[in-house]
Amino acid sequence: MAPVPLEGHQTPVANNIPQEGNRGGSISLGMLIDFIIQRTYHELTVLAELLPRKTDMERKIEIYNFSARTRQLFVRLLALVKWANSASKVDKSAHIMAFLDKQSLLFVDTADMLARMARETLVHARLPNFHIPAAVEVLTTGTYSRLPACIRERIVPPDPITPSEKRSTLQRLNQVIQHRLVTGNLLPQMRNLKIEAGRVTFLVEQEFSVSLTVMGDGATVPWRLLELEILVSDRETGDGKALVHPLQTRYVHQVVQSRLAEATMPLSEVYHILHHFCQSLQLEVLYSQTLRLIRDRLDDHIHVDEYTAGKCLSISYWRELTSKDPRSELGYRLTVQVDQHDPARPLAVVHVPSLGSKESEIADRAIRSDLLSMECLLVHTIYVRTRSRLSELKQELQSMLKDVECTLAGSPAILSVPILQPCLRAELLLVTVDTHTGMLQCHVPQYEAPLVPELTAALNGDHSRLPTLISELRYWITQRRCEKTLQHLPATPHERLPLLHHPDHPMSKISRHRMFIQLHRHPNVILIVAFKEKDTTQCEIDCSFYLAVVKHSSIEDDPHDDSIETEIPKMYLKLLTLIEFDTFVITHGPFTSVDSEVEKGGGKRKGGGPGGRTDASGTNQARRPKHPAYFIPELAHVVALCDERIPFVTLAQEFTKRDIAHQGLQVEANATALVLKLVQLPAPLPSIASSVAWQALLKRLLSVSIRVQGKGMAKTWMAEFVFYSSPLSSSHPKEQGLRRPVYFQYEMGTADAVSRTVDSLLNDWAQIVHLYSIVHDLAEYFKIEKYNVRNMVSIKSYSYSKLVLAYGPTRRATVTLQWSTNDKAFKFVFGKSPTNNTTNAHSLMKEQLEAHLNRYRNLAQIVHILSETLQPLSSISKLPTIPQLGVHNSRPQVPVQTFTVIPQCVTLVRLAYQGMYCLELRLRGSGLVSLRDGAYSRFDRSNVVEEFTPTPGLKTFLSKYVDESAVFRRRSQSEDDNPPSPVTMDSEGGSGVGFLSHHRGGPQSPAQQRDGLRFHPPLTPPSGSNPHTPASPHTANISQTGQHQSFGSSPATSFNLASPPSLPPNTPNMLPHPSPGGLVANSPLNAMHVPSPVGLMPTSSPGPCSNVQVGHSPASSYMQTGHIDGSPFPSSQSMASPAASNWPGSPSVPRPSPARPGQSPGHAALHSPQASDHKSGSHMSRVLPQRSWAGAVPTLLTNEALELLCCPSPHPSGLIVPDLSPLERFLGCVYMRRQLQRFIQTEEGFTAINSTEPGVVHFKVETLQCRVGLNPQHLQSLHIKVQPLPDQKDQWTLEELQIIEKFFDTRAAAPPYKPNTLCGFGKMLNVPLNVLKDFVQITKLELVPGLVQQQQLKWSVQWCLRIPPSAERIVPTGMAGVLVCRNKILFFLQITRIGVPYQGETPSLVLPLVYDLANNLTQLAEKRDPGPASATAAASSQLKRFAEYGANPTECSLFPAVRDLLANLTLPSETPVMPQVVASPAAGQITPTQQIQSPAMQMHSPMAGGQGPPQGPYGIQGMPPVSMMGGPPQ
């Protein structure tokens, strides 16, 4: 049973979408609201229109009804909207119902259709009877024969004939056609026929093609027209389309077919019809082409005079010529027309005026060709007309111009007229006819000639003017040839120049056809070229040459008086002289033939180059390339001749003015060049003219020749001096022959610059003379073997203008000597050999050596000086001169030069260290030098130079480098003949040799005991010394130029330094070096050849210190006792030293000392050297006193010892620092000690402890007393000894004191020597006790890296004694790293991440930490405007976290906060970890790896440090890495 819908009605199905039947369907809620609103609005509108017409009561009733109805409607809408919240459920139910209705419908329809089929359709269903016979026939035979016969009869076509039948039929048809044609009348124009395939085809060229046949063999059967093709075409204007439309062709076909059926002569009728049609079509094509030519290109140059369709077309051309030429009255016209006598012939062309038969044939080809073109017809016609006109002109010109062969050729035709001989193709006068207008035109291809318009007018008009105009054109082209000829020569051609001359001057007689040529190098000379046609052959031009000397002048200058000149700009050239050249002589002189025939030799001579000089070879003329036609060889030769000879003439005149004899201008052999030879040259100075060297030089001078070298504008003078051999034999390979040429080059300027050229030549001659004068003397020294000059130096090169010497061991240094003409003095250029890596050290005193040579002019002495001073100067050059930052305390950014080398003279050099200390180095020769404190005056040792400060302890430091045996060995020669005499003297306040030396004594030279008598040393050696030794230089004021930045302007004076006394026998030799007073007399370096009274002989005596070995410091005898912890100071001097024990050569503390009330404040030698008469006692002594001014006494050193002093070497205490020279380390320590003294004086909280121990700084702070001094063994490092005050001994442990000492030794006082490092260390000590102890704990983590790993810290720490560049800009970079301000302490730490491998650079931070004493708070110093989150911000938050949670108020929070930071700081880029509590080691619990040794125990070995990874740099400029400071890297 089929389901029944709930509402009793079946829901229809439409478009397969279930509908909801009586449930009303569905509508959008929005649309419903729109309908309601529209209905309400509509009702309101109706009420508004209807209510005014009703009564009041009716209006009220209507309004009430409207409101009630509308309210009810909107109440329903409201209910619907509220119901719509649950409409989705209803919608789902509706869809379910629709689906069920559809299923029910499908079931019902299926049952109905099945019932209908069973009851109605299947009742009447039946199968048909199959046609079995037809099927069997088709399947068995493949055909069906039972179709009706009418199909075959009406639809199926009959079978075609066979190919053989076709061939026989067509062959028979061909025979019939051939018979018809033979028996009939056939026009001759239709004889071009072809019979095949049963048809005959007639072809008339360029007109038509027609095919005919017959339909039978009867005589009366008419011809049948099969095909018709019109062959007339227009390839220019037809755009490729057919000229006859297919409809027109069909019409003609019909006409011809109808005439074939009616005419008695059908074939003739066909030809006449089609021939007339094609001729009319050809005329029409030509007419249309003509109209297009007129419209597109030719404008009114052609004109259609007459056009009759099918008859004729008449066109006129050259209309402009027709209007201007009286000879062409009829005009120029061509007519294309049908032949009037025989219309069957092709179109004919008629020309007016008429042409010859040959010309007409050429023109008519355009019609009879396959290309029907009016343009081709015009072109052919005009070409014929052009050749005709030019042929007439050719005959006329050849009769007018003699010996001129004109040529007519080309298309369009061109008449070529050569107007010069020879003539280039580009210089021909070309005449042609304008194809449009018919007018004659002329042109010269290479030039835009200004005469061409006149020539054109004459050709088209008056021909009588042609000879004159052609002649002018010939001159004009010749002028252009002049320009072409001179384009690569130093000359400029002009057609006109503003010349001033009298009216009757010969200049006015020169032809008006001329060129003025200005020579670039000679502005006062002008070459004038005049042109003239030859009488015999007008096409050849003769040139005449004139040389004019001019002067620049203005129009206002007086022509009669050259002295009167105005100030108006000189724009004119006043003609002074005019010289006419003989053309033949000037071009046919000796060796200067120019392209002229040689009659006897049968050959040619051709100009070679700008000078035109050639060889005379007899080469075949045919093989000789001629000059191009535009090149005028005579002109080029004359210009080159003038350009070459005028400078020589001017130069010879200048030599004559200066009374320098010469031989005049000559041509050298084989015409190679011009040469000017000088006979004699003057001496540079009158004093030289009488010298022996001058006469010797003149004997060697063979010749002086002046030539010109170069081409074009780059010409120079070349002066050649030829000498015979040389006084010095050199090793240069080019200086081995007897002929020694010397060449000098000078710029070739104008005539005004000739005097400068002669001056340069004389200066170079003076250079040769001056250099030879000293080389001549040097050669004499070379001959004397006892001077040994030949073994000191090698002559690398002597070229008379320059001398190159090689000297030194292995000849590794070179010097080039030349005479400077600008400075009028000798100049040195120091170099090196290719195998030498270092620069030549003599560059330091280049000016002093030059001044010495220029004063004494003794080159042998310079050789001695160079060989003797090379080694010590090479040592000095190893000292660093690079400026350093951080030297000044208050201005660390100001660079200060480390060492400044100040040469005084050739044997005296001053070395300034950081602008404060000065050493005076005197080069003694024989392998010895002497050093003294340059701060002391050489005149009075009690006076100090203002710019410098005395160097304390210098004498003791230098004494460690004295080699006694070497000094004695080198001095024995001069002292044997001069035995020393003992000298006694008063000694001022004693000063020991070492730390504890009690010996007092000091030198006093004999000169000082003679009441101030001072004697200058003699300039000649004494009689006892070698009389051949040249005198040494004495005082000379040399102004030094800025060749080296360290050179100063100082008087190069040498004064006799007083010699200290020698030690008599039986005197304890406490000074381990001799007095430097003894000078080597045999050396040319010695400025004082005075025998010294000093002689030190090592003798044994029962003195108190006779056990002291020579060459060892006396302080070594005291190093066996003292502190067992390795302090560098003896135990007796740990704090308070005896008054007699003085620091060697050092000042006391520069302020009032309570221990010595009788002495004025400050040390005399340090601040007021003039008041050095404070005598604390006197006694007789023969020992050099070790006072601070003992450095004023020179100390003799060997060159080897000086090399040790200046060469960088490892630190003697084993510190791993950059290698410095011992001298720099010593001066740096002295400088740092002085800065420490100043810091103690100025800083609050420091108290200086007065001590009589010189060279040691004693001071105390709140709980410690310190003693700072140099290492007594090598004086190259500073050390500190720290002890607690007596009342503070319980507060300090030995370990903490050792940490402070080690930190000072390895960090504060280590290189590089920056005073702010010491200031930072001092400020670190000047803090309260608890803070200082925490500081010590932090430095302990740095000095013992093993503690960082033991305590499992993430970061290693380094203390910044100076502000590093990477720190925040709180304090300027380079200042002291510890600042104390009221209750706050600012210090800087650099922490480096350890234990974690990183790709690239390991993280390292510089943290500015502030400790607040009042609040016991440690925090990071941050800027007021906080930046983005960074590692510094992480450190700041870590410190704040520790201050909030982990701080112990009972102890100082500084070290715990730092330790917590090192243990727990995590960068923002890292993953945070749990903070760990680090227990601080108990006091006194020191593991063996933490034991700190005293620095003195580690003097000569690397510091014992912890085992940790290499630490990063301090961040301070110049500081070495921490791993190098705290211990060797693992």
Structure overview:
The strands form twelve sheets. Strands 15-17-18-19-20-16 form a six-stranded mixed beta sheet, with helices on one face. A five-stranded antiparallel beta sheet has the order 21-22-23-24-25. A five-stranded antiparallel beta sheet has the order 32-33-34-35-38. Mean pLDDT is about 75; it is low at about 1-20, about 595-625, about 970-1190 and about 1475-1530. Helix 17 crosses helix 18 (about 755-785) and helix 26 (about 1220-1240) crosses helix 28 (about 1315-1325). It contains 33 helices and 47 strands. About 30% of the residues lie in helices and about 20% in strands. With about 1550 residues, it is α+β, with helices and mostly antiparallel strands. Strand 3 and strand 4 (about 200-205) form a beta hairpin. The two termini are about 105 Å apart.
Which characteristics define this entry?
6-stranded mixed beta sheet; alpha+beta; disordered C terminus; 5-stranded antiparallel beta sheet; disordered N terminus; flat
Helices and strands in order:
Elements: E1 13-14, E2 17-18, H1 29-50, H2 56-83, H3 87-121, H4 132-141, H5 150-154, H6 163-183, E3 193-196, E4 199-204, E5 208-214, E6 223-230, H7 246-262, H8 266-298, E7 303-308, E8 312-317, H9 319-324, E9 332-337, E10 348-352, H10 357-368, H11 374-400, E11 407-409, E12 414-417, E13 429-433, E14 440-443, H12 452-460, H13 466-485, E15 491-494, E16 499-500, E17 514-519, E18 522-533, E19 541-553, E20 572-580, H14 583-587, H15 633-657, E21 662-667, E22 674-678, H16 686-689, H17 692-700, E23 701-709, E24 716-724, E25 739-747, H18 754-783, H19 789-792, E26 793-798, E27 803-807, E28 813-820, E29 825-832, H20 846-856, H21 859-876, E30 883-884, E31 896-897, E32 899-905, E33 908-913, E34 917-925, E35 928-933, H22 954-959, H23 964-975, E36 985-986, H24 1006-1009, E37 1180-1181, E38 1195-1198, H25 1199-1206, H26 1222-1242, E39 1247-1248, E40 1257-1260, E41 1264-1270, E42 1278-1284, H27 1294-1308, H28 1315-1325, H29 1329-1343, H30 1346-1350, E43 1355-1360, E44 1378-1381, E45 1384-1393, E46 1404-1412, E47 1417-1420, H31 1431-1446, H32 1454-1464, H33 1522-1526
Parallel strand pairs: 16-20
Antiparallel strand pairs: 1-2, 3-4, 4-5, 5-6, 7-8, 8-9, 9-10, 11-12, 12-13, 13-14, 15-17, 17-18, 18-19, 19-20, 21-22, 22-23, 23-24, 24-25, 26-27, 27-28, 28-29, 30-31, 32-33, 33-34, 34-35, 35-38, 36-37, 39-40, 40-41, 41-42, 43-45, 44-45, 45-46, 46-47
Helix pairs in contact: 1-2, 7-8, 10-11, 12-13, 15-18, 17-18, 21-25, 26-28, 27-29, 29-32, 31-32
